[in-house]
Amino acid sequence: MKKTLLLIAPIAMLALAACNKTETPAEGEAEKTAAEPAAPIEMPPAITASGTYRCADNSILYVDFLGDNVAADIRIGDKTASAIRVAQPKAEVPAEGETSTAAAAEAPAAGPLKSEDGEASLSGSGKQINVKLPGKGAQTCKSS
Questions:
Q1: What gap in Å lies between CA 22 and CA 128, rounded to an integer?
Q2: How far is CA 22 from the centre of its chain?
Q3: Which residues pair with 39 in a beta bridge?
Q4: Cα dihedral 110→64→62→123 (10° resolution)
Q5: pLDDT digits 0-9 by tens, 54-110
């Protein structure tokens, strides 16, 4: 019985080894994928300042200012709450045939930071901000 098992074991191993075939890409395909440059990755803006604000309705806001005040994340009541992202409105791209100066293209849009849906906005920075949140009116919030 033991001799039979000892003889069958190498045959079974050989059969299993034959099943372990890996397909490699053709040489031309491997060179083609290696030659293609990767798409550039845009990093999210860094947090440049954070603040805790108490508003006129006695609510607490946690605000993280991102980049050179190009965007902000607003959390209501708790630091772990989901954030409302407000950002500068996108600059309008001139239509074909119209010319614009490079300085006008690089200048940030004026006005408050707004959310994509337009329901939230934030203006100001430092000790006092003006904020409008979804379902609430505009109010002034102060940092202590």
A1: 63
A2: 37
A3: none
A4: -10
A5: 999 999 999 999 988 889 999 999 888 999 999 988 765 555 555 544 444 444 445
Asked whether residue 31 is domain-assigned, the answer is no
Q: Decide if 123 is inside a domain.
A: yes
Strands 71-76 and 60-66: antiparallel
Q: Residue 138 is part of which domain span?
A: 47-90+110-143
Task: Assign 3-class secondary structure to the chain.
Answer: CHHHHHHHHHHHHHHHHHHCCCCCCCHHHHHHHHHCCCCCCCCCCCEEEEEEEEECCCCEEEEEEECCCCEEEEEECCCCCCCEEEECCCCCCCCCCCCCCHHHHHCCCCCCEECCCCCCEEECCCCEEEEECCCCCEEEEEEC
Enter the pTM of the model: 0.60
With respect to residue 28, please indicate whether it lies within any of the assigned structural domains. Answer: no
CA distances from 67 to 72, 104, 122, 140 (A): 9, 20, 15, 23
Domain total of the chain: 1
Report the C-alpha gap between 77 and 31 in whole angstroms.
54
